[in-house]
Amino acid sequence: MNIIKILTLASLTGTALMGGVFYAFSTAIMGSLQRMPTGQGAAAMNLISARIQNPLFLLIFIGTALVSLAMAVLAFVKDSPGKWWLVGGAALYIVGVMIVSFGINIPLNNSLAAVDPNTAAGHTAWVNYLAKWNPANNVRAITCTLAVVAFGLALHAGSTTTSTAVAPSRSLQNAQPNLAQNLQQNPQQKQTPQHRPLQLTNPGWQTSEPAIRPPQSWH
User: Fold this and answer.
1) What is the CA radius of gyration of the chain?
2) Are the C-beta atoms of 129 and 57 separated by less than 8 Å?
3) Total structural domains within the chain
4) DSSP labels for 80-99?
5) Is residue 68 part of a domain?
6) Which residue among 13, 65, 185, 192 sits deepest, i.e. has the most Cβ atoms within 10 Å of its Cβ?
């Protein structure tokens, strides 16, 4: 297993984990918070935003971007099989997750945390927050899904190329045992042909008749 395949597996795993987090927010968490009273929903979201900034989440969130970027560069430089899938998957994660997060979701988190959720300003901030944060999070979930598919197709392309290259060598390796097995089953094939003496045609001097006949009598 080469370094590009290791980085691809790491990128695929990290992207899948992050996509699961965004999917959970889109399908369950945000809908539940939106149905809570304004102050309670905003306060709960502020707590989630603070608690999610832990070392494990940040390791996967930022580490996946760094690993996928390094993977894409190496794949492009080494002309690795499926390199365009790798580049596409890395671009999807960096643009659809990192740029969207730092450009939309994180600033909205900071703005919501800066106001009192139980005031009129907090209510306005919460409504504005839900209108912008949810669509951006949906984008993150979709791009993570597409990136996982791209990384998977890149792994498939690499494995197909490797199996095609290994198949001829395996055929040559299997030919020798098969030949030895055939010889064991047919031992007559191993016997060298016996040399028979060269038999010449019967020359005139080997005939039973004398080479020179006596003259016939005239009487």
Assistant:
1) 41
2) no
3) 1
4) -TTHHHHHHHHHHHIIIIII
5) yes
6) 65
* Cβ burial 78-116 (10 Å sphere, 16+ → b, else e): eebbbbebbbbbbbbbbebbbebbeebbeebbeebbebe
pTM as predicted: 0.72
Question: Could you tell me the residue range of the domain that residue 118 belongs to?
Answer: 3-164
Could you tell me which residues come within 8 angstroms of residue 9 by beta carbon, excluding any fewer than 6 positions away? 155
Task: Give a yes or no: residue 67 inside a domain.
Answer: yes
Per-residue pLDDT of 13-60, as tens digits, reads: 999 999 999 999 999 999 999 999 889 999 999 999 999 999 999 999
Sort residue 11 into left (φ over 0), alpha (ψ -120 to 50) or beta: alpha
Locus of tokens 């031992």? 187
| Confidence at 218, pLDDT banded by 50, 70, 90 | very low
* Helix/strand number for the chain, H first, E second: 8, 0
Q: What's the confidence (pLDDT) of residue 219?
A: 44
Residue 81's pLDDT is 84
